[in-house]
Amino acid sequence: MRLQGIAAAPGIAIGVAKVMREEQRPERLPIRAEETDTELERLAEAIRRADEELQEIGRDLTDRGREQEAEIFEGHRLFLQDEELIGKAQTMIREERICAEAALDEAMQETVALLESLDDEYLRERAADIRDVTRRVIRKLLHAAEPVDTRLTDEPFILIADELTPSQTAQLDPKATAGFVTASGGKTSHSAILARSLGIPAIVGLGESLFQVQDGQRIVVDGREGVVLVAPAEEQLVAYRQKASEQQALAERYRAFVDCPSVTLDGASVELVANIGSPADAEAAARGGAEGVGLFRTEFLYMGRDSLPTEEEQYEAYVAAARAFGPEAPIVIRTMDIGGDKELPLLELPKEENPFLGYRAIRICLDRPEFFKTQLRAILRASAEANVKIMFPMIASLREWRRAKAVLEEAKAELRAEGQAFRDDLETGIMIEVPGAALMADRLAKEVDFFSIGTNDLVQYTMAADRMNPKLAHLNDPLQPAVLRLIDQVIRAAAREGKWVGMCGEMAGQPHAVPILLGMGLHEFSMSGVHVARTRALIAKLDRSDMGRLAEAVLELGDPDEVRSEIESQLPWLREYL
Ligand code: PEP
Ligand code: MG
């Protein structure tokens, strides 16, 4: 079976499907007094079956020389004899007269909540084991099939899900996850963006057809073409293995550009920097040839934790990211951009009908100046150690920019009073991702130090097309002439004020876009670390004035396909870089 989706992160992955399903909690069904013994016996039988299964898994792993993993499952067997846990479930069956699966589930929830509340990392990890093993017993009680256990297969797995949240994606282990495929999402969903920085091939927006895939089936993911093959024939596997090695050879060719300066054919320099979400991304991007950071998505520091990061924790993360590049390299730190597809339950924000048009990013920060200031102080302090610049996201009006700048000045005054070091003249800029800001670029350019164009949002707002909706991918195209005109206008407005312009939307690393952005005079290109070397190789083949003429020509066109054809007719070799 061949399925077509939206190519989200390049690369070819071959592995076993692991279909991610939200496990429903069992229903709390009442039982009659005379059913108590039967229910207790059902529980005992399910525990016996789970125990046998675990024993078998342990034996199998030991036979394969994987004693360490075998021990995990031996540990699970011990939980099945745990007096507290099982005793609690038995008492609930007897006293509350509920079915065995609900009793065990509730006993597990109580035990897990208790362990998770403790300040002990080891015990908190045991909570995950208890959840795991009781779910196995519950599946036995419900006669449900066991999902693929990634610890048991030697093959890497391909995650299949309706949707992956950005924090779930950030927690994926690239060693174990060969790729992922989701039913929803678009090219600029944050899970797709994260997949690119983790180097995990991914396809999104496959729609309902994805649910025909079954757990354990062999899958091929072609992240460049957006193609998923389910249960491929042997000759298809051979062809894809060949294709994977060709892509690897191409990547080797780009690797020659990792350590070169970023210059065009006619000798003009540009900056090729990376989009990161963590200090670990910074290290990977530096290895990939990035000259610094054009966008640190700091909101990822806030996700997947029980409390907000402190000033100190943030400061350390910023300094660690900068350390990957050295003291002179530019590090653009964007203040928290929660909202849209990036949720932060800790902030307890009400659910919204239109989260991308809602209460997000700078709008929240301006409402909570103390919260905002914690981050600004951390960034400012990091500026004493590195060439840090501050960037505000989602600025829609002059007033928002001025208010954000005023809070920054307050944070500076506080640090000054405390005698803390920071760079007073650190550059402060804004993202241009709201059409309102793009249209006001001439006014904004008089006050900011730089712009960074965020096309992921700018495209969706300009074309009124949700970036997560796979049905709108044709509108969500940065080569839409309306978007190109706005970008051109922004770059010109900044140039008139002598300010530099970068781009940190995904467009900045797309081979069709790079020539025209160069021609329009873009100075800084910020992208996933994986695309830096390829883009540098491409830029080395481009002449700035020729690209200026090409940009002028495409600005006259009326349709993204015409734009693409014009670029390809001028640069027929460009396809090699796709
Ligand atoms: C953008 O909107 O282009 C951008 C870079 O920000 P994010 O993708 O985090 O919304
Ligand atoms: Mg954005």
From TrEMBL:
Keyword line: Coiled coil, Cytoplasm, Kinase, Magnesium, Metal-binding, Phosphotransferase system, Sugar transport, Transferase, Transport
Principal subcellular localisation of the protein: cytoplasm
Lineage top rank: taxon: Bacteria
Cofactor annotation: Mg(2+)
Catalytic activity as recorded in UniProt: L-histidyl-[protein] + phosphoenolpyruvate = N(pros)-phospho-L-histidyl-[protein] + pyruvate
Chain ranges of the PEP-utilising enzyme C-terminal domain: 254-543
InterPro entries for this protein: PEP-util_enz_mobile_dom, PEP-utilizing_PTS_enzyme, PEP_util_AS, PEP_util_C, PEP_util_CS, Phosphohistidine_dom_sf, PTS_EI, PTS_EI-like
Coiled-coil blocks: 33-60
Any one Gene Ontology molecular-function term assigned to this protein's record: phosphoenolpyruvate-protein phosphotransferase activity
Top enzyme class: transferase
Subcellular location: Cytoplasm
The EC number(s) this enzyme carries: 2.7.3.9
Residue stretches making up the PEP-utilising enzyme mobile domain: 155-226
Occurrences of domain Phosphotransferase system enzyme I N-terminal (ranges): 4-126
Primary role: General (non sugar-specific) component of the phosphoenolpyruvate-dependent sugar phosphotransferase system (sugar PTS). This major carbohydrate active-transport system catalyzes the phosphorylation of incoming sugar substrates concomitantly with their translocation across the cell membrane. Enzyme I transfers the phosphoryl group from phosphoenolpyruvate (PEP) to the phosphoryl carrier protein (HPr).
The family this protein is said to belong to: Belongs to the PEP-utilizing enzyme family.
Listed name of the protein: Phosphoenolpyruvate-protein phosphotransferase
Gene: ptsP
